[in-house]
């Protein structure tokens, strides 16, 4: 097509740049939707992505986006029911010292990230962990740093724990149990590395006055136990659905949608939420943004930029190759965010095999914590800790991340290679 030949190659890159500006700027939902639609319209108008290819990409992304919508509702209802507040109270009661609290936050963060996504850890768990620390007279800075580190780095225990992994799932060809068997030892090593790294690197600083965690809807003492039991039970059943359904080829969106439907109905009946509140919790404009990002990145990969990235890839899956792939994933995450980088790398790396793609995903997940631009979760984290009274500057953030991330990534790839 003549239009594509003359002006097309730059249009997908410009559209991707516009989407990344939106990702970093967190504008209003309306502006986010307008930019997403404009970016897609631009790449379609110049023929950078044929309509048939766009339709195929939408069919591939639709289950991922549906899962995202559902799990955000699940996490929101769990927060409204007091699950995260109860977790914070448990940390404050059971963790007698700062090191014990740090370990507790690491373990709890790994569970929340694995079950409800890393955004739930950043937005919902970290505030109550900070409150638990200040209520015991400990500096909250280490637990705040560890919450972020765990959200990014320990986000591959389940294939649904991280949106980047979920996006790459069609190319992995692993059932949920096979995925866990490959990644669980790696994540255990990474968790230990991250706890130790934060213990050594994170500043303590003064202990601020305790700041209240975001309060869920009021729940009386008599109602507390059933209010916690229902969302916890539904989440456990959702996990069972993920694992059991995977063996039968059932997409994770269906257990997540069932859990979201049950919890939404329960929250509405109990007056914990309104219909409008649940819709807002699902962040539909962000789901539209992910769809737009997928279409625009598909156009980028089809052009010269995709060819340039492909030439950087190794031809095997030895130890050095896995390190190179992980490093490339980390680098592209810092440049493009890990969502965009996943969409670029996953189809290019998939022919190299499962180990190569897992190493790349480790780079995309752990490496996203290297700089503030690597993950949208990091941007959300800075806003979250500011709301609970912590002012964490870029220098402090990178003093931890620039040391911890390479060590953690090296440990992860080495464990993956040894156990392959």
> Helix and strand string, N-terminal first?
HHHHHHHHHHHHHHHHHHHH
> Biggest sheet: strands, sense, closure?
none
Total strands: the figure is 0
Low-confidence stretches: 1-6, 211-223
- Which percent bin holds the helix content? over 70%
**What is the number of helical segments per DSSP (H or I, 4+ residues)?**
20
Q: Given the C-alpha coordinates, what overall shape results?
A: globular
Number of separate structural domains: 1
Structural class: mainly alpha
- What percentage of the residues does DSSP assign to strands (E)? under 5%
Measure the end-to-end span: 46 Å
As a whole number of angstroms, the C-alpha radius of gyration is: 21 Å
Mean pLDDT: 87
Structure report:
There is one protein chain. This protein has helices at 2-7, 10-25, 29-45, 51-80, 83-94, 98-116, 118-135, 141-153, 163-172, 176-201, 221-247, 253-270, 275-282, 284-302, 304-312, 319-336, 338-349, 354-366, 376-387, 394-419. It is mostly helical and 420 residues long. It has one domain (2-419). The chain is globular, with a radius of gyration of 21 Å. Residues 1-6 and 211-223 have low confidence and may be disordered.
List keywords for this structure.
420 residues, mainly alpha, globular, disordered N terminus
Any chance you could write out the topology, listing elements then pairs?
Elements: H1 2-7, H2 10-25, H3 29-45, H4 51-80, H5 83-94, H6 98-116, H7 118-135, H8 141-153, H9 163-172, H10 176-201, H11 221-247, H12 253-270, H13 275-282, H14 284-302, H15 304-312, H16 319-336, H17 338-349, H18 354-366, H19 376-387, H20 394-419
Helix pairs in contact: 2-3, 2-14, 3-14, 4-9, 4-12, 4-13, 4-14, 5-6, 5-7, 6-7, 6-8, 6-10, 7-8, 7-19, 8-10, 8-19, 9-17, 9-18, 10-20, 11-12, 14-17, 16-17, 16-18, 16-20, 17-18, 18-20
